[in-house]
Write a structure and sequence with these properties.
By secondary structure, the chain is of the alpha+beta class. The protein is 34% helix and 25% strand. It is built from 9 helices and 13 strands. Strands 4-3-2-6-5-1-11-12-13 form a 9-stranded mixed sheet. A 4-stranded antiparallel sheet has the order 7-8-9-10. α2 packs antiparallel against α3. The termini are far apart. The protein binds aspartic acid.
Length: 324
């Protein structure tokens, strides 16, 4: 028995690659790393790895984490520049006895010293997005201070292998136009991801600043440990944090989560429209699901072929430069 779930449609091709590994009796960690590497390398996903959107200084800064639910080994990197595969760096850091979470120049230096591939992660498309945004900011708002924008998304993967090992991993370029050095929930254990092979795993995407306030991935795993199925565990955690934030501050950021339990059952929940995810298991092919909310409860359905075609066409459409 094996299963894998990933946030957003962008996980599809990677989940298919990981499915082959898991179907052949491979390791959940290899599945997660292979899956996320593919997504990091694909230039048209503008919120993960190569092609990710830059910070306010037009620098791509990447966050990633890896957690082994059997050993509880955890590794993460934050605000790394020009590391081709942050997930591989995070996995390597998870094997160390200390220094498991490195950020900024220290993480970059570690990657260089340890033979990780270094490439310029800023693509021409990402530059156009950045320059268009600056142009719009100047033209329409005339504000000097740049704000973080939508256009973020994290790939979060949870995988169970046939030896009952569960692993979770994340990778993201974080918020578009973020401050240099800003790190969200994605590389933070318990917030962006959590895995416990005796229970299950969860991963989150959305506004990191708010997701961290609920330690949401840990909360989902605890919910499952306390007997909830993955769907109820996700729903409960999202609703609770959404309610708490709205009560305290009058608003809540985007909160979307996925989870699997130790039997390979999955769950998802979100407080936004349009969250998608990918699930595959030993008896279910890799497919994209779209979520929708009915009376505050997250439901999901298979994505139509039209939606899937439109997704890739939109990602690859030529960009119009708004500036000179
Ligand atoms: N959670 C990520 C962050 O705040 C972004 C996202 O998943 O959309 O960096």
């Amino acid at each position: 028995m094996w299963a894998i779930i990933g946030t957003w449609r962008m996980a599809l091709e990677g989940v298919k690659l990981a499915s082959e590994i898991l179907e052949n009796g491979g390791d959940a960690g290899d599945g997660v790393e292979t899956c996320i590497q593919y997504i990091e390398d694909f230039p048209y996903f503008k919120s993960v790895g190569y092609g990710g959107l830059p910070n306010e200084n037009m620098e791509v800064e990447l966050d990633s984490a890896y957690m082994d639910g059997t050993t509880f080994d955890f590794g993460a990197c934050g605000a790394v520049k020009n590391v081709k595969n942050p997930i591989s760096l995070a996995r390597k850091l998870s094997t160390l006895d200390a220094n498991n979470f490195l950020v900024g120049s220290g993480a970059d230096a570690y990657a260089r010293k340890n033979g990780f591939e270094i490439v310029n992660m800023l693509t021409d498309r990402a530059k156009i997005h950045y320059k268009n945004r600056i142009y719009e900011e100047n033209k329409f708002k005339n504000k000097k201070e740049l704000k973080p924008y939508l256009g973020h998304d994290t790939v979060g993967i949870c995988a169970l292998d046939s030896k009952n090992k569960i692993v979770a991993g994340t990778s993201t370029s974080g918020l578009f136009m973020k401050k240099a050095g800003r790190i969200g929930d994605s590389p933070v254990i318990g917030s962006g991801l959590y895995a416990d092979s005796a229970v299950g795993a969860a991963s989150a995407t959305g506004l990191g600043e708010d997701l961290m306030k609920g330690c949401i991935s840990y909360q989902i795993v605890v919910n499952m440990k306390n007997g909830m199925n993955p769907q109820d565990a996700c729903q409960d955690a999202v609703k609770y944090l959404d309610d708490v934030l709205k009560k305290a501050k009058g608003k809540s950021g985007d909160l979307s989560v996925v989870a699997i339990d130790k039997y390979g059952n999955f769950g998802c929940a979100t407080n936004i429209e349009g969250f998608s995810f990918v699930y595959a298991s030993y008896n279910t092919p890799a497919q994209v699901y779209l979520t929708y909310n009915e009376a505050g409860i997250t439901k999901y359905k298979l994505a139509s072929q039209e939606w899937l075609d439109d997704y890739m066409n939109t990602r690859k459409a030529p960009l119009v430069k708004k500036y000179e």
